[in-house]
Amino acid sequence: MTARSWDAAAYHRVSVAMDAMAAQVLERLPLDGSETVLDAGCGTGRISAKLLARLPRGRLIAVDADPEMVAIARETLPEVLRVDLLDLALPEPVDAIFSTATFHWVLDHDRLFDRLAGVLRPGGRLVAQCGGAGNIAALRTAADEVSSLPAWRSHFVDFTPPFLFADPDSTRDRLTASGFVDVECWLQPFPVASDEMPSYLETVPLGPWAQRVPSDRRAEFVAAVWDRTPGDTVDYVRLNITGRRG
Ligand SMILES: C[S@@+](CC[C@H](N)C(=O)[O-])C[C@H]1O[C@@H](n2cnc3c(N)ncnc32)[C@H](O)[C@@H]1O
């Protein structure tokens, strides 16, 4: 199952702040337009639709585990499977795998990369980006500080945020062990601003914390975290991944 739940309608509205990140990842995926491509963790499908537009003679298989995300994605995409990536299997191998803003929500990267290798044809490309080492470090520090205050701490007993911000070296090693070759992994700082910062924070990077707080106090919690966060952008650090199936 997914490690967190999503407010898919809110995500669709506010995640426009992250489109620039995904656009760069899309540019790294060479396509002639006839391939079958898997979008691993399609969310509401807004980025997937841009990928689909590059496949006029091809096929896009979009996959996500969250039922609300899948329902919205099905409004615009022809083929959306509700599947946990950790259990992914397809009848035919795909030519390429694309993924944005998803792998860090999957805590078992060894199994994730094994599953991806299992559905990719030999020579097929993996082009992906997710949160990497140091991602949202300042925001996370502020969230942890606020969570430990007397006013909030009862909601955070035994709480560990459900993400894995991996580093390039361990990711390269894991991908190689799963059968990928020509693997390149690198970190990229990518500060993000939003016109709707409070709802963006609550829906995306602070979602795991906000979901622990009663709904009528989430805005207050998010404001307290943002007040303690230096600067006026979210300090994203992305882990870029490219490779081919050996
Ligand atoms: C931040 S959204 C990214 C959506 C889209 N790729 C984008 O860039 O806007 C992360 C997505 O990953 C999905 N996800 C997380 N863990 C998953 C898993 N184990 N299997 C399938 N989908 C997963 C979530 O349901 C969510 O829709």
Bound molecules: S-adenosylmethionine
Overall radius of gyration: 18 Å
Residues in helix, %? 25-40%
Cα(first) to Cα(last) distance is 29 Å
Describe the structure.
The protein has 246 residues and is of the alpha/beta class. The protein has one domain (8-136, 164-198, 234-245): Rossmann fold (3-Layer(aba) Sandwich). Helix content is 35%, strand content 21%. The protein contains ten helices and seven strands. The chain has helices spanning 8-14, 19-27, 46-53, 67-73, 109-119, 137-147, 168-177, 197-203, 207-210, 218-228; strands at 36-40, 59-64, 80-82, 94-100, 120-131, 180-189, 237-245. A seven-stranded mixed sheet has the order 3-2-1-4-5-7-6, sandwiched between helices. Helix 5 (109-119) packs across helix 7 (168-177), helix 6 (137-147) crosses helix 10 (218-228) and helix 8 (197-203) crosses helix 10 (218-228). The protein is globular. Bound molecules: S-adenosylmethionine. S-adenosylmethionine binds at residues 2, 6, 15, 22, 41-43, 47, 64-66, 69, 84-86, 100-102, 105-106. Residues 2, 6, 15, 22, 41-43, 47, 64-66, 69, 84-86, 100-102, 105-106 line the site of S-adenosylmethionine (SAM).
Topology at a glance:
Blueprint: H1 8-14, H2 19-27, E1 36-40, H3 46-53, E2 59-64, H4 67-73, E3 80-82, E4 94-100, H5 109-119, E5 120-131, H6 137-147, H7 168-177, E6 180-189, H8 197-203, H9 207-210, H10 218-228, E7 237-245
Helix pairs in contact: 5-7, 6-10, 8-10
Bound molecules: S-adenosylmethionine.
S-adenosylmethionine binds near residues 2, 6, 15 and 65.
Descriptive key words:
21% strand, 246 residues, alpha/beta, single chain, seven-stranded mixed β-sheet, binds S-adenosylmethionine
